[in-house]
Design brief:
This protein has 193 residues and is α+β, with helices and mostly antiparallel strands. The protein is built from 5 helices and 11 strands. Strands 2-3-6-4-5 form a 5-stranded antiparallel β-sheet, sandwiched between helices. Helix 2 (70-79) runs parallel beside helix 3 (99-117) and helix 4 runs antiparallel to helix 5 (173-183). The relative contact order is 0.17.
Length: 193
């Protein structure tokens, strides 16, 4: 899976109609709604959009024939394995009707090409890792966090010592567990986040 590094735009002319695709990274449905509101052109004939955020997706044809705009935009996002992306295509009608098939190709291909040209980054799956260590070992945990690009989600104190919750790349969890065990001479206790 991939996400965008930043906003990307592509302008295409198809049979005198202008299609302007803008794709943006999003972290929430509110981000998607804000992007759609910001990027929509009220003087355009249509402002069609779609977004994918994990299992959540939405699309809108904005007056185009049903299934001819929003769904192909979403298919372009999914077809290139993107997540956390909102795409909006502004269409300025040029006077020549494209038909449903032509619209499907125009919207889908414009977004697909915009995404192909956009800088992207892989989405790395991460999971929380929770553990407790005696107070004497807590200081060494900070170095391990920094050296292994972990994100500290929480730190609290218990009767036993310090409790940490880290966000760790899924493929590094076993390594981090081993590093923590070695650094604390086995005094670390893993627990539920």
């Amino acid at each position: 899976m991939y996400s965008l590094c930043g906003e990307a735009t592509l302008r295409v002319e198809i049979k005198k109609s202008i299609f302007i695709a803008t794709c943006v990274p999003i972290a929430s449905e509110d981000d998607a709604k804000a992007a759609i509101a910001r990027l929509s052109d009220l003087s355009a004939t249509h402002n069609c959009w779609a977004y994918r955020l994990g299992a959540v997706y939405r699309f809108n044809d904005d007056g185009e024939p049903g299934g001819s705009a929003g769904r192909p935009i979403l298919a372009a996002i999914d077809g290139q394995s993107y997540d956390g992306v909102c795409a909006l295509v502004v269409r300025h009608f040029g006077g020549i009707k494209l038909g449903v098939g032509g619209l499907v190709r125009a919207y889908g291909n414009t977004v697909a090409e915009c995404l192909r040209c956009a800088p992207k980054k892989p989405i790395i799956a991460k999971s929380p890792l929770a553990f407790e260590v005696p107070f004497a070992d807590a200081y060494s945990i900070y170095g391990i966090i920094g050296q292994n690009q972990c994100t500290k989600l929480d730190e609290s104190y218990t009767e036993r010592g310090s409790r940490f919750v880290l966000l760790v790349e899924d493929d590094k969890i076993d390594d981090i567990r081993r590093i923590l065990t070695d650094a604390t001479a086995g005094r670390v206790e893993f627990c539920e986040p």
